[in-house]
Write a structure and sequence with these properties.
Layout (H helix, E strand, L loop, with lengths): L2 H5 L2 H20 L2 H35 L6 E5 L3 E2 L1 E5 L18 H7 L2 E3 L2 E9 L5 E14 L3 E5 L10 E6 L7 E4 L5 E2 L4 E3 L5 E8 L3 E13 L2 E7 L5 E4 L6 E4 L8
Parallel strand pairs: 7-16, 8-12
Antiparallel strand pairs: 1-5, 2-5, 3-4, 3-7, 5-12, 6-11, 6-13, 8-9, 9-10, 13-14, 13-15
């Protein structure tokens, strides 16, 4: 029997009609409140899908229709993640509450409340064009100012790996000369790439920042061009991030309090 024969089977057609009828009866038995809740969930799923998958295209189309299309580079970034902190002038016993009692997702806030300075940071960047006009991201330039390392207890938090494929780059903040070094999948240095990004074709970069014997304030300037004009975007747009070396730490421990041999 062919697929067409099965689809035209009277028994199959009757079964489908019965299913539709039972579904209609079930819907009619529900209160207006339940119907409204189900409809809201359905609409929410549709809106979320449209926003995630079609959002950039719809935004670009709206700009074109309004005659206000903007070309340029948009940079999305969060506060850098830390692999640990140095708490100036403190011992492990001085930290409140003890980090062993803090959930991993709350460690950043806990460290800030205890006055910790990050030791080794990871800044994740998403570089995206504001339209379908190609933006050339030419280079990343570090701005760094260093002083003495923080003296106190160094607490190292559990390490996690990102599952999102990203370009990797490294900034040794107290090295000379200071430069951002890109690496391949094996960790070997490569020539800095020139990225071409648009609104629908972004680039993700993971920048790892560390220092050995200094406490450094740092930021990054993204050099880019569009339509032949050169521009700069600073990250962060105000102030600087801070990272410290662990060479001056008085003790090294995990968040559970275990002593680390350094």
């Amino acid at each position: 029997m062919t697929q067409e024969d099965r689809a035209g089977d009277p028994a199959e057609a009757s079964r489908r009609t019965g299913l539709r009828g039972r579904a209609r009866q079930w819907w009619q038995r529900q209160s207006l409140g339940v119907q409204g809740a189900i409809f809201s969930v359905f609409v929410g799923v549709i809106v979320t899908a449209v926003t995630q998958w079609l959002g950039p295209y719809l935004g670009h189309l709206a700009q074109r229709i309004a005659g206000k299309e903007e070309h340029g580079l948009a940079v999305d970034s969060d506060v850098p993640d830390a692999s640990g902190w140095v708490f100036a002038g403190k011992a492990y016993a001085d930290l409140t509450p003890p980090p062993a009692q803090v959930e991993d997702v709350e460690l950043e806030l806990w460290a800030k409340a205890n006055g910790g300075t990050p030791a080794y940071q990871v800044l994740r960047l998403i570089l995206r064009g504001k339209s379908d006009k190609t933006v050339f991201v030419k280079r990343l330039e570090p701005e760094v100012h260093c002083g003495s390392s923080s003296v106190g207890v160094h607490v190292q938090k559990p390490a996690y790996m990102s599952l999102v494929p990203e370009r990797s780059a490294d900034l040794h903040a107290d090295a000379k000369p200071r430069k951002i070094v890109f690496t391949d999948n094996r960790g070997d240095p490569i020539n800095p790439p020139v990225y071409k990004v648009t609104q629908t074709d972004p680039e993700r970069i993971t920048l790892e920042v560390h220092t050995t014997t200094h406490r450094c304030k740092w930021s990054v300037i993204v050099h880019w061009s569009v339509n032949g004009d050169d521009h700069k975007t600073r990250i962060p747009d105000e102030g600087q991030y801070v990272v410290t070396g662990t060479n001056a730490a008085t003790e090294h421990r995990t968040t559970d309090g275990e002593l680390i041999r350094w």
